[in-house]
Amino acid sequence: MDYTPLPAAVDLEAAIAPGAPQIFDDVPGNLRRDWSIGDSAATDAAFATAYHVAKLKLVNNRLVGNRMEPRAAIADVESSAGQYTLWTTSQFPHVVRMLMGAFVLNIPQHRLRVVAPDVGGGFGVKQFHDAEEAAVTFAAKRFGRCVEWVCERSEGFISDARHPRPHLARHRRHRDADGGGVGGEGHAVGGNAP
């Protein structure tokens, strides 16, 4: 295998700094949206009168939304009746049934049963239709037998559908000599979930 290491920026501030490696050609400076509200001239004039400025930097690191138990799916097909049954660790079995039936495997809704047994918390990652649910259902039909798949914990860390984005916020509060508020400003940068 031949590969070429590419330059990388591993945090939000480095990714939007001048000269940072570009992720997408159509997103100059790696900044998808840049907007502000308020009257900047009036704000600058008010801030110039501030006696004291308090600064706060808040960093929310990227994290892995980890399920109580890894993803798992078991599918069976009763060929004579054309009935499919999928057992999955989803918290949205009706969404899985609709998406997989209508858009992925073209199984009529009345022939597809999706069962979500008593599963643990998902912290946001159990609300998606996972590819393995369709794969085991397809394989069960293809091979005419029950098919089971269970994700390793390490696989889930890199392949679960939702990983919350990193977020950086900088806030400044401007005060006059008596401690009264002159104004405040905030600047936030957030990355997208894959």
Can you offer a commentary on this structure?
The protein has 194 residues and is an alpha+beta fold. The protein folds into two domains: 12-63 and 164-190, Aldehyde oxidase/xanthine dehydrogenase, molybdopterin binding domain (Aldehyde Oxidoreductase, domain 4, 2-Layer Sandwich), CATH 3.30.365.10; 72-159, Aldehyde oxidase/xanthine dehydrogenase, molybdopterin binding domain (Aldehyde Oxidoreductase, domain 4). The chain is 23% helix and 25% strand. A four-stranded mixed sheet has the order 4-3-2-5. Helix 3 (93-104) links the parallel strand 3 and strand 4 (112-115). The longest helix is centred in the C-terminal third of the chain and has 13 residues, at 131-143. The radius of gyration is 25 Å and the shape is elongated. The two termini are 26 Å apart. The relative contact order is 0.21. The model has no long low-confidence stretch (mean pLDDT 88).
Task: Looking at this protein, list some descriptive labels.
alpha+beta, Aldehyde Oxidoreductase, domain 4, 2 domains, elongated, 7 strands
Radius of gyration: 25 Å
Instruction: Find the count of extended strands (DSSP E, 2+ residues).
Output: 7
CATH architecture identity of the largest domain: 2-Layer Sandwich
The 3D shape can be described as: elongated
Domain tally: 2
Provide the helix percentage: 10-25%
SSE run = HHEEEHEHEHEE
Query: Looking at this structure, what is the CATH superfamily of the largest domain?
Result: Aldehyde oxidase/xanthine dehydrogenase, molybdopterin binding domain
Instruction: Write the CATH fold name of the largest domain.
Output: Aldehyde Oxidoreductase, domain 4
Tell me the β content.
25-35%
Query: What's the CATH class label of the largest domain?
Result: Alpha Beta
Kindly report how far apart the N and C termini lie. 26 Å
Derived from helix and strand composition plus strand pairing, the structural class reads alpha+beta
